[in-house]
Amino acid sequence: DPLEEINLGTVENKKVTYISKLLQGELKEELIRVLHEYKDCFAWDYNEMPGLDRGLVEHRLPMIPGKKPVKKSPRRFAPEVIEKIKEEIERLLKAKFIRASRYAEWISNVVLVIKKNGKLKVCIDFRDLNTATPKDEYPMPIAETMIDAVAGNEIMSLLDGYSGYNQIYIAANDVSKTAFRCPGALGVYEWVMMPFGLKNAGATYQRAMNLIFHDLIGKFVQVYNDDIIVRSKRKEDHLCHLKLSFERMRKHGLKMNPLKCAFGILFYC
């Protein structure tokens, strides 16, 4: 469906998400009202993302017996690249995803990845740490089941977790293992929130989603990591299904990325 921009904020402070342009009448009006009612389930900025309750889930980093900590040697970067890394570190510190690290036994290195648009993305090379971590065998859903699940429905909404992995805390005893070295005088930092690139991060996130939506999955909710589908066989049931899903998000502090969501997508036979 073509999408229509909806502002859940004010003229001065726009908070945008998207609904199907094909929606009309009362269903459209009621959907917009529901999105306003549950706009606290979205995050338009990192400071609107408090993190999931530690009692629900934490990411742990157990070690394979006999594996010794590895401290990587510093890497050299061009001055313009160091500036890019500095900007990213400042962003992560402001979001409270990382903090300064001292006396870490494990130290990984920063790496730069070229994105499809040609821009540089700052990542952490966790290969040594991942090698020392046993695999979490938590079952992941089969992607095809997400596609199969939408068959026979009249309407669905697509939701995407806001910076999904970063909503989960690292277990306090394991934070120092995630330390990474920045070039020059930028220092050493460690992750407070679960970053991308850690072994088992996907399993930890899926476990959290299954715990949050456990009794709704298979009925009208499908979850594949940070992608969530809310689907309804009848259009008149969809707002109720969305409300029940939003209530779970609100209860646990789970935040969606409104710019990657699409609500009220209609099916036509």
UniProtKB/TrEMBL annotation:
Highest taxon listed in the record's lineage: Eukaryota
CDD domains on file: RT_LTR (cd01647)
InterPro entries: DNA/RNA_pol_sf, Rev_trsase/Diguanyl_cyclase, RNA-dir_DNA_polymerase, RT_dom
Pfam families xref list: RVT_1
Domain (Reverse transcriptase) ranges: 115-263
Protein name: Transposon Ty3-I Gag-Pol polyprotein
Species whose genome carries this gene: Cajanus cajan
